[in-house]
Amino acid sequence: MLQPEQKQAARAIVERLTEPCAHCDARHLSVCQAVEDPYLEQLAALVTTIELAPHDTMVTEGDPAGHYFNITYGTVKIYKLLPDGRQQIIGFSFAGDFVGLSVRENYAYSVEALTPARACRFDRKRLEGLLTKFPKIEHQLRSQTSDELAIAQDQMLLLGRKTAKERVASFLLQLSHRAKRLGQPANPVVLTMGRADIGDYLGLTIETVSRTFTKLRAEKLIALGANNTVHLELNALSELSGAWN
Amino acid sequence: MLQPEQKQAARAIVERLTEPCAHCDARHLSVCQAVEDPYLEQLAALVTTIELAPHDTMVTEGDPAGHYFNITYGTVKIYKLLPDGRQQIIGFSFAGDFVGLSVRENYAYSVEALTPARACRFDRKRLEGLLTKFPKIEHQLRSQTSDELAIAQDQMLLLGRKTAKERVASFLLQLSHRAKRLGQPANPVVLTMGRADIGDYLGLTIETVSRTFTKLRAEKLIALGANNTVHLELNALSELSGAWN
DNA sequence: TTGCGTCATTGATCCGGATCAAGTGTCAGT
DNA sequence: ACTGACACTTGATCCGGATCAATGACGCAA
Description:
40% helix, 11 strands, Arc Repressor Mutant, subunit A, 4-stranded antiparallel beta sheet, alpha+beta, 8 helices, DNA-binding, homodimer, Jelly Rolls
């Protein structure tokens, strides 16, 4: 016989499966905020929830771009490869981030889970069918795309002109700002990705990333804690990152 | 007394001033294609044509983002600066390109003319007021933004992971593809920007750009002609650029 | 014509970060 | 407790591109 709290949990799971959007933790963060409660079921109708283990691939560069994704849990990396295997990570996405925004026929990048992750998958064709009914969605998509563009442009400055130390400092501040924006503590940040991925994001090698962490620690600008936690000296790092303030 | 062809020319100039959109050479290339002929005057009402000499600034990083621009003639560079003067060029824009696409309150970059240039200036607030009436414009803006994002992501791969030779080859192919897309010959391309700007775009110094041109010429992959014309060995350059083909 | 300013090329040297090569935890499975 | 497997750190050396420094090639104004 089930205990009351077990029944409650079971009901929550069933609701999550049948009405994913109404119970979505990431809803207020994402494009879904453009749809009012009473119409949510129309959105829910074209959504599938997917679960990913680390190293699972969500999207493969060159494949037909059939879906948009909304990360609701975990960390994924978005990356491009050169034919000889060199990798550039375009970005990391966390809960609330929309992935797959493109008007093109095929994905221009691959997406892979770094941690266990969960995502909402939207059928692209059908979502675009809703755009005339909910013009707010189109606006929201443009807004998201525009923000990503601004972030990409900042990253071009980083990759083209910053030193290794400036890159790592900028990266740590990015994580801090993102955490704050999501309502989490800005200061001790958690690195959910390894040194290799940080390197592939910053255009550096794993050794340079490691050495730079060591130097920053020696200068008391960061402190490495347990579980990949990093305490930051925010003001000093900001000086160093090449930010304008 | 004016000759008939002079009258004709004068009339064209007057029409250009009073009905800029209807006579815009770049119209079919830009966001303006979302508006049908009979409604063009509504678009024209919020447009000003501006002329720029080389080194004139169109937009300054940090200023309130009051306008969108549509380049109709010439070349401009879009760039970001670090406090110590290091510069990263985010992109070059030519006739038909839309500049200033952003949802943010302030420009995140500066824009400066490299050649004599002309542009249509749209009042941002008023253009966004038209979005409900012409939802196609919103879609067009998203589409443009999305394309720019894809280009920025390619550039991140270039800046983070490509060698100097691969960067220069990629850059020349970009110019070639852009020319083809605009219906111009794909092969002899014209460099409307100097070596310094190419360097600031590719994350290299002026000397490295120059040396790389010299090497490519020695390998018969390019030939430098008069007036900054460059003849390209498209297939060989494509091999070298790290493109997937 | 000369002189000057600007830009591109070329050479010599330097250095930040890459590459190559060991270590050093740390944790899961036995 | 032992053993891989894996991720990270640290050290030694190398090299691609940066920096410093002339030199050439135009166009333009006097």
